[in-house]
Amino acid sequence: MFKVMIADDEERICQLITALVDLDDLQMEITGIAHNGLEAMRIAVRQQPDILITDIQMPGCSGLDLIKQVKKSVPELEIIIISGYAHFEYAQSAIKYGVGDYLLKPVSRIELNETLRKLKTRIAERRETESDRIQLLQQSESDTRRIRMSLIGQLISGKLKEPSLGILESEYYLKVRPGIFQAFCVKIDGDMSQFSDSGMAILLDETENLLERSLRPRCFEMLLHRQRTACIGILNYENKQAEEIRRLLRECLNQLEARKNLYGPVTFSMGVGSMADAPQQLGV
């Protein structure tokens, strides 16, 4: 449903407009009625209507002042100004505030509904465009995550032998900087027959979350890749953070070991690669 708000100081005008609008046909609903500009501002900001129908002259503040203020909070708001002949030129000045639709009194049912139908189409097209933009953005983010996550697999398989800074930035979208590059692996061992796929997924989730919380704030970049019973990670951090990172990795392992009784018959182990000055020296 499209939300419509009416602002007019005359009650009968508000009633007339409500009666004239083909609400069901247009899939619209009247969600607010105001009789002065200040009241209209409060309602519009609170309800975020799609369309505002307003008189050009109202107590409290004029229709133009109302439009100017409401547009700051509801920038996509479509507006119809209702004006008498005496205020026609005044209504035209509303164009600079993004108002392209105004009706002259007395309001015609046909003209009002045609205008609303046009605005409905405009809003629907804008929503569709925004929906497409969001879907493209989400797809792009998903593709970026997939590409980033493929890096460790490429390194393990030997398909990527020299992961330079430039390659990591341009092809894998990593925000790496000169400093230390280091790989590590957290392995979960035990009787795996006692764990379902979902149970192991929970263990890996807990491991990833702990590593993320502990290490990411100290790193330029951090990448985690999960296998059936392990989390493999790559860290890029500042040289002066080396001792801190070593301490945090040790603490993460200790925390996992301390909780292992909660997880079942498992043990955790960690292997940490040597500190490298360049990504080409990473050992994964």
What does this structure look like?
The protein is α/β, with parallel strands linked by helices. Helix content is 48%, strand content 21%. The chain is built from nine helices and nine strands. It has helices at residues 11-20, 23-26, 37-47, 63-73, 88-92, 109-157, 165-170, 197-215, 242-263; strands at 2-7, 28-34, 51-55, 78-83, 101-104, 180-190, 221-227, 230-237, 266-272. A five-stranded parallel β-sheet has the order 2-1-3-4-5, with helices on both faces. It has a four-stranded antiparallel β-sheet with strand order 7-8-6-9, sandwiched between helices. Helix 3 (37-47) runs parallel beside helix 4 (63-73) and helix 8 (197-215) packs antiparallel against helix 9. It is elongated. The relative contact order is 0.09. The model has no long low-confidence stretch (mean pLDDT 83).
